[in-house]
Amino acid sequence: MENTTAVWLDVDPGHDDATAILMAIYLDNINLLGVSTVHGNTSVYWTAINAARCLHAFAAPAHIKVFPGAAKPLARCSAIYSPEIHGEDGLGGVVGLPPPDSPEVQARFARDEDDKPITALQGMVKAIKETWNDGAGRKVSVISSGPMTNIALLISAHPELLDAVDQFVFMGGGDGFGNRTPAAEFNIFCDPEAAQIVVDNPLKTVMIPINVTHTAIANKIIHSRLCSSSQDDNHTSDSPSTNLRAMMSSLITFFGDTYREVFDFQEGPPLHDALTIAYVSDPGLFQGKRYRVDVENHGRHTTGETVVDTWDYRKCDDTWGPTGKNCLILESLEVDKFFDMFLDCVNRCDKMSPLNV
Questions:
Q1: In CATH, what number is assigned to the domain containing residue 12?
Q2: What is the domain count for the chain?
C-alpha cells in the first residue's frame, strides 16, 4: 500500500456515484478506506443502501464498509432530492442489484460492538487517525461526490485532524452556470453553507465543476465498449455479455434517458462523480488553475452559486484558506484517457463481481 493514495469517499448514490465507487475499488493506486453516505440524490436511507449494494456488486474487499451520514443540510430545514434524474431510490432502472434487506447488503454496513451502525463522522475520524498514526503513517485524500454536509462536519468538529488530510476533492459547482438552478449546481445547492466551510478550509481543495464533468459523456461508443467483455478496445457490443455489464448498462441507460429528458443531452449522460477518483489517481489527466471561490448563501436567485473570482478582484494571499485562492478549479479533461481508465476498471470488476456467479 506504500505506493497508493489513501482515500475516504463520501457519496450520495446516484448513478454516477456508483461509477466513482467502482473506480475507487479497482484503481491500483487508490487505497479506499471507507465509504460514507449523505443526503442528496435521494434520502440518506437509500444512499446508504445503494452504496452497500455497490460494494457487494463490485466485489469490494470485505473491510471496506458503508458509514451512513447526515440526513439533511447543516442550516436548512429539509433535504433536496433529485428523483427526476436518479429515480425515487437513487438508482432508478438499475437491474441485478440485491434487495436492501439481503444479508450481503447488510454485511456491508460498519457496526459497533452493540451491532449499531457506525456514523459517517465516526468512521472518517477513526480511519483518518489510524492511517495518519500521529505522523508515522500517511495522509488521507477526502473525496466528496455529493452535498458536503459530512465533510463540513469533519472540518468543523475535528480541526485537529486537518494535519492528517492531504487534500479535499469535490465534484460540484459550476463557473457561470448551474444544473439545479440557472446559477447553482445540485451538490452545492443542497447544502451551500457546508460548501462554504469546505472551500474555506486551510488545505488544498480541488473543485471539479460541471464545466468539466459535462465533457465526460458516456456516449454510444463508450456504452458499447462497456457491454463487451472483449479486451479489444475496438470491439463493441449492443448486448451486455455478463450480469455485471448488464447492471452497468442499465445504469448508463436510465441515466442517459433522464439527462436527455431533463437537460437535452443527446449523446449520453455525464459521469460527473467518477472524475473525483480519476483526479486523485492521475491528476495529469486534467488542467486547472487556482481561484478564489465563495458560495452564495442568501441570494434570491443565486443561492448555491459558486462565485469564481476569475479576474482577481479580491486581494488574496498564498494560503488555501479564507484569505487565499482557496480552490484549484479543474478546467479540462483528457476524455479518451479517462474512459480508458474507467473501462479498464469495469473489465477488472467483471472478473470479480458476484453478480456473474
A1: 3.90.245.10
A2: 1
